[in-house]
Write a structure and sequence with these properties.
Helix content: over 70%
Shape: globular
Number of strands: 0
Mean pLDDT: 84
Radius of gyration: 21 Å
Number of helices: 17
Low-confidence stretches: none
């Protein structure tokens, strides 16, 4: 069995490989296609992000908490993989029907099972305590995806770019399936059947995780998609481009969320826990501010090398997006402290302030276009951070 330090380091490396792939997909596509086509791609990518988050919450996050004696974990992993494949195929059929309206989302429907199933295998390997297998598959995906997208001809349509992106994950999916079959050998052939009754049961834990995702990230992602469908697709492209530029900072946020709770729980006393979370939040906020300053000093020629034509639209949003990520740093660490001090308090904060963020995004877009939308997201993130830390302060006082 892998010792805990190695296990954590390997898991962090895998998370970094997956995040780097997502950043590379957006960057390479932005360089390959005109701004208008990238906007269409960005809408499809936003739909994928929404579905990925939903599948991760409903299947992945619940899977890593499932145990049991003997072969139970192995059977859970096989059933989860097959259920993900079947459910994503059903969702893909619905998306493929949108092809007459959007070539990009229609193409996403064709490759959705490949993308979601490959990503979902990470959680199976996590339950099996084999993060090295997840790292191997995600590294292969990164190694294949970047050259495949870069090999597409300049000016390739958004539908073709989505197909290339999705099909490039196929080697990683095949490798992951083979590794999963090997790691779960002895579980029995029947374990490959999807356990539908488990996922539809009222007491299934994934329902709660899906609800939290729905009132959190899903709300803002849906609003951004709505802006693209009902307003300007260029706005979605600009927002996606600006967000991608802050991808390295986002990786740190995910690492804090994933690996922070046990570290923070080991700190003695509520006040010390809150202080440790606050110091981490301030450090991440300072990093986000410095990153925003660095990006703002980037010459236009260098920016176009990164995002192509989309750079001009995304560069205008850097002050707002930098402010948003600084606020997100504080909010992430505030919610992290709440998960340790009072886990039930996080859902209320997420519900109220996610709705507020959506309202501010849409209101900002109505008043000031895409720049107003970006500042609306920043203001919403700041409000959520303030609410999280207000509740942390309350919990510390109660604990005394």
């Amino acid at each position: 069995m892998i010792r805990p330090p190695s296990h954590v380091l390997t898991s962090a490396a895998d998370q970094g490989a997956a995040a780097l792939t997502n950043i590379a997909v957006v960057v390479v596509t932005a360089r390959q296609v005109p701004a208008g086509d990238f906007a269409s791609f960005a809408i499809a990518y936003a739909v994928f992000t929404l579905l990925l988050g939903a599948f991760t919450a409903f299947i992945g996050q619940a899977l890593v908490l499932r145990g049991g004696p003997g072969d139970e974990p192995r059977r859970h992993c096989r059933a989860a993989a097959v259920f993900t494949l079947a459910a994503s195929a059903a969702a893909g059929v619905l998306l493929a029907a949108t092809a007459p309206l959007s070539a990009a989302t229609g193409a996403l429907g064709a490759v959705l099972p490949v993308l979601l199933t490959q990503d979902g295998l990470r959680y199976a390997f996590s339950l099996l305590r084999r993060p090295g297998l997840a790292l191997a598959t995600d590294t292969l995906r990164l190694a294949v995806t970047v050259p495949v997208l870069a090999a597409q001809p300049a000016g390739a349509g958004p539908g073709r770019m989505v197909l290339a992106w999705g099909l490039s994950a196929l080697p990683a999916l095949l490798l992951g399936a083979a590794l999963l079959a090997y790691a779960t050998r002895g579980a029995g052939a029947g374990a490959w059947r999807p356990d539908t009754r488990t996922y539809l049961a009222r007491r299934y834990l994934g329902r709660r995780f899906l609800a939290e995702f729905g009132v959190g990230n899903a709300a803002s992602q849906t609003a951004i998609i709505g802006v693209g469908v009902l307003g300007s697709s260029l706005a979605v492209g600009a927002l996606r481009g600006a967000t991608t530029l802050f991808g390295p900072v986002g990786v740190l946020f995910n690492a804090v969320t994933g690996f922070g709770p046990p570290q923070l729980a080991a700190v003695p006393g509520a006040a010390r826990k809150a202080r440790a979370a606050a110091m981490t939040g301030l450090a991440l906020a300072a990093l986000a501010a410095c990153w925003a300053l660095l990006l703002s000093l980037l010459p236009d020629a260098a920016g176009r090398e990164v995002l192509g034509e989309t750079w001009g639209h995304a560069a205008e949003l850097l002050p707002a997006t930098g402010t948003q990520y600084a606020a997100m740093a504080l909010g992430t660490c505030g919610l992290l402290a709440l998960r340790v001090l009072c886990p039930r308090a996080t859902l209320g904060v997420q519900v109220v302030f996610s709705v507020l963020s959506v309202a501010l995004l849409l209101g900002g877009y109505a008043l000031g276009g895409v720049t107003g939308a970006a500042w609306g997201l920043a203001l919403g993130s700041a409000a959520k951070a303030a609410a999280a830390w207000a509740r942390v302060t309350f919990e510390v006082r109660v604990s005394r």
